[in-house]
Amino acid sequence: MTQEVDVFAHRGAQDNFVRSEEAFPAFIGGYRSGKTAGGVIKAWFYSMEYPGAIGVWTEPIAGMFAESLLPTLRKFFGEYEMHLWKEEGKGGPNHRIVFTNGCVWLLKAAETPERIVGFEAAWALMNEAASSDHGSQEEAYFRLVGRLSQQGFPHWLGIATTPIGQNWLWREWVNNPNAKKTGHVLFQGSSMENPTLEKSYLDTMEATYQKGTPLYRRYVLGEFAQLEGLVLPTFDPDKMIDPWPEDEVFLRRIAGVDFGAQSPTTIVETGITRSRRLWDREWLYQRECDDDTFVKACRDAQDSGVSLFVCDPSGKERIAWMRQQGIPAVKARSNRITDRVKAWSTPIGQGRYRLDSGSTFLIQEVMGLSWSRSKGRELETDKFDPNTPDHAFDAGAYSKMELEKMVLDWTPPEIGNW
Ligand SMILES: Nc1ncnc2c1ncn2[C@@H]1O[C@H](COP(=O)(O)OP(=O)(O)OP(=O)(O)O)[C@@H](O)[C@H]1O
Ligand SMILES: [Mg+2]
Question: Which residue lies with its CA nearest to atom 8 of ligand 1?
Fold first, then answer.
């Protein structure tokens, strides 16, 4: 079964990764640099060359097969679906891609490594292996290594991922004196190397992450950059702090809420103008905040035109309680640290951010918030420095996440669905 296919890997990291015959090739790349495509192309050509070979494709969670592997497989090799390959067992424990030449790709979620047992395979590919949103994938990696025992086939375990900091992948592939000997080779790819990406996308990436910052090195260049220093190094107080514009007509005004106990409870308003400029100001920054103070701050904000309160998603009970008080409250779209940072860094990077000069706590946090320094040990996850407060920062992140959605592609958040 040989098929002429019209699919080529892009020159550079993707092509080198696809052609690599090393045992542990890792394509570490920026966003949209072609990592998943590289993995699919590599696994496809191997499967065509070695009928009967069993492979394992992992995603961090099972739900991601439908978003990542399958659309990519269909985009490149969709014309052979039902002739050469088909998807089986969707949504169940035996989800797989089956080929007419006897090859099988077992689809496994890395978040349940205990299920990576009881089969032998020739190869494995871990897509988004650095993601630790659902726990470190290191155990899944070690288990997969132990599965590569199918006789008569060359064995390999590939990685295709956006890097985070100096995590287990960095230890295995970079900070490891035996890496070369054991075939742990690294192919580092930048988003800029993918010729199919539109310039506007790359411009947004540059504006959001700003050349030279660790976030840019990580998410665009694909380096194992440890986050350090200020979280918002491009915030410029001279240009971005101004008195609240009383005469401005805002398209919408909403507020973000971060619940605290000993740490302060915070309410930060975000307004968006016709020219898509975002303005922030604080309504509350209060340690051990009692209910009356909180409700009064919400009412004051509502009286001035704030129409929605977007809250720390971990505070479900507080959100339900706010609704009982008649305050329109919803949970924020995401609590991921990178999403919170992006909510700030995007408008700042695009030069359309302003902060009210009377909001002293918020100003302090925005200018002081720093990444946690790794003290000798590597960090598996990104964290803010616990000595630099982030409560007003988080409230402002929640409101900005929702407001940008409201203006771009908004569906109203469900109130009453708890
Ligand atoms: N060799 C190729 N030929 C044609 N198109 C490609 C190739 N490689 C990547 N692309 C296209 O570039 C885009 C990004 O590729 P892909 O999804 O593989 O990147 P990624 O690095 O996995 O992205 P993400 O960071 O979102 O996971 C997709 O539209 C994909 O189809
Ligand atoms: Mg991908």
Answer: 34
Query: Ligand 1 centre from 68 Cα, in Å?
Result: 10
For residue 28, give every residue at least 6 positions away whose Cβ sits within 8 Å of its Cβ, in sequence order, or none: 130, 159, 161, 162, 163, 169, 173, 186, 187, 188, 189, 222, 224
Ligand 1 centre to CA of 34 (Å) is: 4
The set of protein residues with a Cβ atom below 6 angstroms from ligand 1 is: 8-10, 29, 31-37, 72, 75, 162, 194, 196
Q: What tokens appear for 321 in the block?
A: 């309680």
**C-alpha 373 – ligand 1 centre gap (Å):** 33
pLDDT for residue 155 is more than 50 = yes
Ligand 1 centroid – CA 31 distance (Å): 9
Domains of the chain: 13-219 (3.40.50.300), 237-417 (3.30.420.280)
Residue closest via CA to ligand 1's atom 24 equals 32
Residue pair 59/26 in contact by the 8 Å Cβ criterion:
no
Point out the least confidently predicted range of 184-193, 227-236, 289-298, 374-383: 374-383
Task: Give the residue ranges of DSSP H helices in 190-233.
Answer: 199-209, 214-219
Q: CA torsion 107→111→114→119, rounded to 10°?
A: 20
Half-sphere exposure of 392 (CA within 13 A, CB side): 25
Residue of minimum CA distance from atom 26 in ligand 1: 32
Q: Is 304 exposed, middle or buried (0-12, 13-18, 19+ CB in 10 A)?
A: exposed
Q: pLDDT digit string (tens) for 177-190?
A: 999 999 999 999 99
Q: Which ligand is nearest to the CA of 163?
A: 1
How buried is residue 338: exposed, middle or buried, by Cβ count under 10 Å (0-12/13-18/19+)?
middle
